[in-house]
Amino acid sequence: MIIESRAYARAGLLGNPSDGYFGKTISIIVRNFGAHVSLYQTPELHIEPQEQDRNLYRNVYHLVESVSLTGYYGGSRLIKAAIRKFVEYCEQNHLRLSNRNFTIRYGSSIPRQIGLAGSSAIVTATMRALMQFYEVEIPLEVVPSLVLAAEKDELGINAGLQDRVIQAYEGCVYMDFDKELIERTGRGRYERLDPRLLPPLYIAYKTDLGKESGKVLNDVRQRYEKGDPQTLEALGQLAEGTERGRNAILERDYDTLHELIDRNFDLRCKIMNISDSNMELVETARRCGASAKFTGSGGSIIGMYHNDEVLNKLVVALKRINARVIKPYVF
């Protein structure tokens, strides 16, 4: 029997980057893109390498492009980290695993390096496949913390819970990363919101942005840990805006939600450096009458639009700067 599992891209609608600082966020799943894992029983455990895992290139420029998009180690390291954390969890919780091996392969249609959580999707899909193969039940609220541990503890990836929560729960989720709760249990409070309450949303990304060699440096973590007043105030306002956004969604107050999405990005600009390419995305979308903020760490934006006329303007204007516009499938 072949086990197939999936995990989808995600977009932060409100609150990020406060999720890494005991804040609050609202995120949606983006079913337009996903990572998939296939797993089946075999005599030995084998991780099938994909193109990004092979050390074969057409020339030096192909190598540079590959490293820019997928890093030096490809995606198989994500599979290894997921397997290790899965086994550790089972051992710690006295769950016996059957004496069976498997072959596992993965693939992903999630565009790389544009803030749609491609790496965590691979880990999440792997966790789901392992649970099914070994017939192990891991509580849903635990899965995001386990996925984060695989990336952060095993691979040193600087990440937070938000991406892993929405990829585990799917749909639309309000998250409260209360400090006391996180430190005590390793997880926050997660509340599902009905995706049917959401206004018309769009996502846009530059098709060549993932190939940028330069990265904008930010020192938010250091300023946060030093107690910088401006940083703490901005992060606090991001969390507060998420609470207001939750109420706006529940009440279908889309004018307020529109303002909060824009304000999220404006607050981010106060504490983080924004590249010219990313700024161009946001400014172009806003000139069309749409709201705009990053979906994650940068590279793609999300916002709402009031009618099809605005959507058409978005498609035309963003195409001029080599950006693609999609309507996210949330359910």
Automatic annotation (TrEMBL):
<dbReference type="InterPro" id="IPR036554">
    <property type="entry name" value="GHMP_kinase_C_sf"/>
</dbReference>
<feature type="domain" description="GHMP kinase N-terminal">
    <location>
        <begin position="78"/>
        <end position="171"/>
    </location>
</feature>
<dbReference type="InterPro" id="IPR053034">
    <property type="entry name" value="Glucuronokinase-like"/>
</dbReference>
<dbReference type="GO" id="GO:0016301">
    <property type="term" value="F:kinase activity"/>
</dbReference>
<feature type="domain" description="GHMP kinase C-terminal">
    <location>
        <begin position="248"/>
        <end position="318"/>
    </location>
</feature>
<dbReference type="InterPro" id="IPR020568">
    <property type="entry name" value="Ribosomal_Su5_D2-typ_SF"/>
</dbReference>
<protein>
    <submittedName>
        <fullName>Glucuronokinase</fullName>
    </submittedName>
</protein>
<keyword id="KW-0418">Kinase</keyword>
<dbReference type="Pfam" id="PF00288">
    <property type="entry name" value="GHMP_kinases_N"/>
</dbReference>
<keyword id="KW-0067">ATP-binding</keyword>
<dbReference type="InterPro" id="IPR006204">
    <property type="entry name" value="GHMP_kinase_N_dom"/>
</dbReference>
<dbReference type="GO" id="GO:0005524">
    <property type="term" value="F:ATP binding"/>
</dbReference>
<dbReference type="InterPro" id="IPR013750">
    <property type="entry name" value="GHMP_kinase_C_dom"/>
</dbReference>
<dbReference type="Pfam" id="PF08544">
    <property type="entry name" value="GHMP_kinases_C"/>
</dbReference>
<keyword id="KW-0547">Nucleotide-binding</keyword>
<keyword id="KW-0808">Transferase</keyword>
